[in-house]
Amino acid sequence: MGWNDSVTEFIVYLSKNRRMSEHTCVAYERDLQQFGEYLSSVGINQLDGVKSNHIRWWMSELMEQGIKPRTVNRKLSGLRTFFKYLRQHDMLLHDPMSRVVPPKTAKYLVKDIPRVDLEKMFARFPWEEFDTGERDRLLLLMLYTTGMRLSELIGLKNTDIDFSRNQLRVLGKRNKIRDIPLHPELADTLMAFTKTQSSKWVFSRSNGEPLYPVLVYRVVNKYLKLFSSASKLSPHVLRHSFATHMLNNGANLMAIKDLLGHSSLSATQVYTKSSFEKLKQIHGLHPRK
Questions:
Q1: What is the pLDDT of residues 64-96, one digit of tens each?
Q2: What's the predicted TM-score (pTM) here?
Q3: Which of 38, 59, 177, 288 is least crowded, fewest Cβ atoms below 10 Å from its Cβ?
């Protein structure tokens, strides 16, 4: 089987069997097609002709083009998953990734938005002066107080909220469902807001359709930059701030993992590093330093 045909079959498998999101499938397909074009340029058109050297040469070419190591690693991860799928379905006997060493990436910590900045924003901003102020304030509150993902917020429907239990149900990555508790005050605000809406979506546009990612990003960035000097202001940073502030207040790491919908604890442990950095800064103020 040729490269393009096998990629098409693989993407269908990811969508139907693995139930990956359309966004993820598109990203996989784009990266695999890019590597396929490289293979064609060096005269490789069949799966069994792909060797580790081809991947290493492609990786070097990407780095020379100025592609960041983190992006190269993402592309290599897609190749690794693809080749694993081919071997499991007896379409490839060898593993071209076996001798490929991914480039090292610089480790960095996402900075949370200081709690005091968020408290000032929610308390002082004149939300009522704007047509979408009520919606925008609730949107920001939901992201910060639940830690939900951007895609989960956009896909939230009125039927996903259980006001009798003060909780909501979200559809996370790989179609995993989880329940998130709501603070009573937030639940009351949410109930009052949904009663004024005619759309099935909790957050919608004037035409009743759900919000889209770029719009939510703009809303978040618009308000946060008025109160915070943090270098990055986005829905994901609010999710990060939720986890970091919970941990700083003594929340259990496993509980935070469940609230965020992480499949493994290793994904949640990044927040312990962020909190440890704060501890080091505080310790630096000790008079016997």
A1: 999 999 899 999 999 999 999 999 999 999 999
A2: 0.65
A3: 288
